[in-house]
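Researcher: Please predict.
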Amino acid sequence: MTKKHSVLLKEEKCEGCTNCVKGCPTKAIRVHQGKAWIKEDLCIDCAECIRACEYHAKYTKTDQLDQIMESSEYPVLLIPPSFYSQFSAGIPAQKIKKSIINLGFEAVFDVADAAAALSRKTLDFLNNNSGNYISTSCPVIVRLIKLQYPDLIEMLIPLKSPVELIAERVERKLKEEKNIDPDIFFLTPCPAKLTTVKRAIGQNKSFLTGAIGVENIYQKIYESLADIELEEKEDQLISLATIWGSEGGEEGILRSWQELNTLSVSGIKKAKKLLNEIERNNIPEAIRYFEITSCVDGCIGGVLNVINPFQAQFNLEERIKKIRQITQEHNLVLKKEDDEFYNFALSQKITADNISKLDSNFKKAMQKLEQLQKEIDILPGLDCAVCGAPDCKTFAEDVINERASRTDCIFMLRKQLSRLADDLSILANELPPVMASKKEEADDS
C-alpha cells in the first residue's frame, strides 16, 4: 500500500487464510496465489483486517517517540478522550499529562475540550437547521459514506472533528502568543486518524503533523507515573466531554443539555446496517442526529489501544463519575467562553469517491460489464470466499480484470476436472487411428 493508507500488509507473514477477506466491510482485500493484497481505492483504514488476522500480517505504522523527539523542535501532543480509559480513575489526569511532558513534549492538550465545544456547536446547528445529520467525528464512517453511500453525504454535518478543531486552535495560539510554529501530534487509538493526517476530510490539509499510536507510548507513560508527584492545585480535572471516548458519548452530552432524538451505533457491521436503513428511508425522520463509530464500544475499542475495551469502559465510567461529583453535573462542559476561538466549519465540501470498478474507458467498461454478468451466471453464487474474494460477484470482477482465473474457484475447478476426466475416459476407450484401421480391415475379412 502507498502513503494513502495506514493499514499495511506484511506479505511474508500472510498465510492466505481469507479471514481478512470475509471481515472487510468494503471488499478491499483479496487472496490470490496464497497471499493477500489490498485494493487501495476501496480501503477505509477501519482496521477490521488487523483484528481478524491471526498471523499479524496486517498492521499500522505510526510515528515513533524517538523519531519525534529527534526531528521536532517544539512537539505538542493531543490526548483523545479514550486515552484516559487506559488508566484507572484513581490516576489523576494531570499526572498522566506530566508523564507525557517528561517524555519530551513541550505541551499537552485535551481533545475533550474541543469535543465539548463541538457538542455545543452541534446543538446550535441542529436547532437552526432542519433535517437529519450524521456526525463527522469518525473518519472511517465518513470514508465509508463517501465510498458506498454517496447519497448520504448531504447528511454529514459540516463541522470539523474535535481533533482538527483543537489542532487548529493550538497552532494559532502558539503562533500568536509565543511566535512558535509547533509540530502537533495526535495520540491515536486507530489507524484511520493517522490516515487523516495524510488525507484530510473536508479541508485542504490536516492541522496535524503526525500521529503516534497508543501502544507505542503507553508503557513508558505507565512506568513513570509512580515517580510523579502533584501539588493539590495541580490535580485539575478533565472535561466531562471525556465521555466521548466511548459509544454514545457524543449522544449523551447532547441529550444531557436538551431533549433531542438521537441514535448511537458502534462497530462497522452495525454501522453498515444502520446506513443501509437510512439510505432506504427506513429510519424515523424524528431522529435528528446519528453518532456512528466504526470501532465496537467507540474509540476505546480502537485497535491501537492497550487495555481491553471492557476494562477501558469501566475505567472511563469511573472517571466520569468522579468528574460529575466534583463539578456538580455538567457545569464544566457548559462553559462557552472559549468557543469563539474555534473555527468549526469545514473549508471544503465532502464529495463522493469516484471509483471506476471495471475500467476507466467507458467502452471497455461496458464490454466488461457484459462479460461480468456472464461470469456471475457461470459461478455457483455461494459467496464462500474460498477463491480468495469476498463473494462471487467480486471474484467475477477479478477474473475479467485478469487478477484471478476461473479455476481459483474450487467449484469451477471441480467442473473442469470432471470434464477432463470424462474426456480422458472417452480417450481411454478409443484406439489410435492406425490400430483402428487395422481393426476395421480385420472385421471386414
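Model: Residues 89 and 385 are 45 Å apart (CA to CA).
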